[in-house]
Design brief:
CATH topology: Rossmann fold
Number of strands: 7
Strand order of the largest sheet: 3-2-1-4-5-6-7
Distance between the termini: 40 Å
Radius of gyration: 20 Å
Order of helices and strands: EHEHHEHEHHEHEHHHEH
Shape: globular
Oligomer: single chain
Bound molecules: nicotinamide-adenine-dinucleotide
Largest sheet: 7 strands, parallel
Structural class: alpha/beta
Helix content: 40-55%
CATH superfamily: NAD(P)-binding Rossmann-like Domain
CATH class: Alpha Beta
Number of domains: 1
Number of helices: 11
Strand content: 5-15%
């Protein structure tokens, strides 16, 4: 359903790779809500992914850029303003990558070249975008910027590895720039901390299927899907959330405030094979 929440707004969406990508869903929803935007990803991702289909569907121009490269980011912002005919109202950072995760390096045996790359691609790129945009005065007043994060920034999750450090830095950058942009230009900067989701990046974390089952059992509302994440992003890009800034906003069905649930405990008890562990028959029995 469309509410025209983004009618007349111009945006840049970084990170759609294929139809599973959270950024892809955001682009589809932004288009439904009347926005005009450009799309960006690396030249390799554009060549091997299916981004062109998304561009055709939404009438968007694709602007290639490695998000760690300041010159290429300058080009994205300048070209976007030319193509869209004015300053930018919203921007999505939906980018993450760790070679340590991909290569199965443990946290106590990190490759430091990979670690630096993880930080640059997954966190510092957000700083680079915000700094480039500020120098070019690319954002309109009352604009909105969102980056996607994960609860591993606050809590240790087995196998999330150096991406946890990247997400902690990403959220900190959102707060630091949120102050500057809010103070000077009334522009808000937030992160959304999303449930684990089966995307290309998500599938890079070994055992993601079991993690998704665990968080589904732990979350009173269940895991948030990529489509639901897109809906949330749209509200933050809209004028209905003008005083929300410098926040890390959990979009996880309640997972981040849970300790143990009936459903997760039931599985745990079974796995213990323990005759004294009596399973409650109904959630409200305990
Ligand atoms: N999938 C999950 O479980 C989950 C949960 C919470 C947060 N997130 C975050 O959501 C965001 C989007 O990930 P996704 O799950 O949609 O996966 P995805 O694989 O679809 O998207 C990741 C994107 O990052 C891009 N990218 C990688 N290196 C880049 C670079 N140097 N320059 C520019 N782009 C680059 C990839 O090409 C890809 O399009 C990421 O920040 C991810 O950490 C994902």
């Amino acid at each position: 359903m469309s509410y025209n929440l983004l009618k007349g707004k111009r945006g840049i969406i970084f990170g759609p790779l294929d139809e599973k990508s959270i950024a892809w869903k955001v682009a589809e929803r932004a288009w439904e809500e009347g926005a005009e935007f450009t799309i960006s990803n690396t030249p390799t991702a554009i060549r091997f992914g299916t981004v062109k289909e998304l561009a055709e569907k939404t009438g968007s121009v694709i602007l290639p850029a490695d998000a760690t490269n300041v010159k290429e980011l300058e080009n994205v912002f300048q070209s976007s303003m030319e193509i869209l005919g004015g300053k930018i109202d919203f921007m999505l950072h939906s980018i993450g990558m760790s070679m340590n995760v991909r290569k199965g390096r443990r946290y106590d045996d990190l490759d430091y070249n990979y670690f630096v790359k993880t930080m640059d691609i997954s966190a510092i790129s957000f700083h680079k975008m915000l700094q480039v945009a500020r120098k070019l005065d690319a954002f309109n007043e009352w604009g909105s910027v969102v980056a996607l994060s994960y609860v591993a920034a606050q809590r240790t999750l087995f196998r999330y590895n150096d991406m946890a450090d990247a997400k902690a830095a990403l959220e900190s950058i959102a707060r630091s720039f949120g102050y500057i942009y809010g103070r000077d230009r009334k522009i808000r900067v937030n992160t959304i901390s999303q449930s684990p989701t089966l995307t290309t990046a998500g599938s890079g974390v070994k055992g993601i299927d079991n993690l998704i089952d665990f968080t589904e059992r732990m979350s009173p509302l269940g895991n948030a899907t990529a489509d639901e994440c897109a809906d949330y992003c749209i509200t933050l890009f809209s004028d209905l959330t003008r005083k929300v800034t410098m926040q890390n906003l959990y979009h996880d069905g309640g997972f981040s405030n849970m300790g143990m649930s009936f459903s997760a405990m039931a599985v745990y008890n079974r796995s213990l094979d323990c005759p004294d562990c009596i399973e409650p028959e109904e959630p409200w029995d305990d």
